[in-house]
Amino acid sequence: MRKKTNAHGRPALAIDELQTVNLGTARHWIRVRGTGTSNPPLLLMQLGPGLPIINEAHRFERLLALEDAFTVVYWDQRGTGLSLRDASNRSNVNVAHMVADTVSMLETLRDRFGAAPLVAGFSFGATFAAYAAVQRPDLVSALIAVGMDVDIAAAETNAYAFALRTARERGNRRAARQLEKIGPPPHPGLKEFTTRLRWVANFGGLATNANYNATARALLVSLARSHDYSPADVIRTLRGVWASQAALVPELAATDLVRTMPRVEVPIVMVQGRLDQVAPGEAAQRFYDALEAPSKQLVWFEQSAHTPHLEEPERFRDLVMMTRTSRIADRWVQ
Fold first, then answer.
1. Under 8 Å CB-to-CB from 71, ≥6 apart: which residues?
2. Neighbours of 225 (CB within 10 A)
3. What is the C-alpha separation between 147 and 279, in angstroms, rounded?
4. Is the peptide bond between 186 and the residue preceding it cis, with omega within 30 degrees of 0?
5. Predicted confidence pLDDT, tens digits, the chain (334 residues)
6. Nearest CA among 255, 334, 265, 300 for reference residue 95
7. Strands, sheet with 268-273, edge to edge from the N-terminal-most edge strand
8. pTM for the structure as a whole
9. d(CA 55, CA 129)
10. Which of 267, 247, 108 is nearest to 100 (CA)?
11. What distance in Å separates the CA atoms of residue 170 and residue 15, rounded to the nearest whole number?
12. How far is CA 169 from the centre of its chain?
């Protein structure tokens, strides 16, 4: 019998469900998708702080097609997206609760699917996933850490220097004036954080294929087009981005995994964009060199900044598939 295919010629989804899960006393929303009911679980943890991911499900499938080999779980974490429907997720947005939620989610998925999931975390999603893996390595089969936030003080210094240097080199007086006004890091305030991020993004240090306004516009469009988000959900989601950043940015400023995370007890693959100015490669290399793990790889994406999974999606998909079978080839390491 001929298998059903979707509009892109790939196997049709056998699972595509919006579900709720109880994590502690709060209810969270996930979308579970896959072409087969026996594929291993893959949990995706979004970058941020504050960004949802359920709205990205169709774009991720189109670019990465991870649903062909995994049961993919898209999770709107505390303070983000659909999980803001539960008022409990609008408060206590801090690192301890984000990590505790992650451990609870991993337990839920392990119990549901009968296997510890593979976890792919992006930016701070990777950092939260790593914290959870340190606490409960039995709940993670392997961790793929993409653009992982390792050393925030070093990252802020790098991002600010990059933005100001580029502004001056390009003769962008507006950018230089705004950056000079906020001064060098630390930038604990949300206004200063946003100003720095805006110009880093506009100069290609966040993504090579989108500036700050294009990224913000893409978020709004994906939310508006998603069948999962009502107009009220969209409003809560956008407010949640700002609220989560205001709550988490000052606390996360002290992050230094080189000092505080000497070992993880799960296999880890670090994916690093060579052009990343948000989570710079120098910090990733230092963390990788110091880290003890059952197995570890640092994979450089030469044409990417902070989002290699979206900038070089075919290569990222191949890497995830190879991680699934525990066969990371030497050709990935540069």
1. 15, 32, 33, 34, 36, 37, 39, 40, 41, 42, 113
2. 10
3. 6
4. yes
5. 445 666 556 688 999 999 999 998 999 999 999 999 889 999 999 998 999 999 999 999 999 999 999 999 999 999 999 999 999 999 889 999 999 999 999 999 999 999 999 999 999 999 999 999 999 999 999 999 999 999 999 999 999 999 999 999 999 999 999 999 999 999 888 899 999 999 999 999 999 999 999 999 999 999 999 999 999 999 999 999 999 999 999 999 999 999 999 999 999 999 999 999 999 999 999 999 999 999 999 999 999 999 999 999 999 999 999 887 654 333 344 4
6. 255
7. 15-23, 26-34, 71-76, 41-45, 118-122, 142-146, 268-273, 296-301
8. 0.93
9. 20
10. 108
11. 49
12. 31
Tell me how far apart the alpha carbons of residues 11 and 73 are, in angstroms, rounded to a whole number: 18
Tokens 């100069």 sit on residue: 203
Residue with tokens 């790889």: 297
Q: Please give the C-alpha separations between residue 185 and each of 125, 157, 160, 259, 333, in angstroms, as whole numbers.
A: 23, 6, 7, 20, 33
Residue 11: both structure tokens together:
């196997």
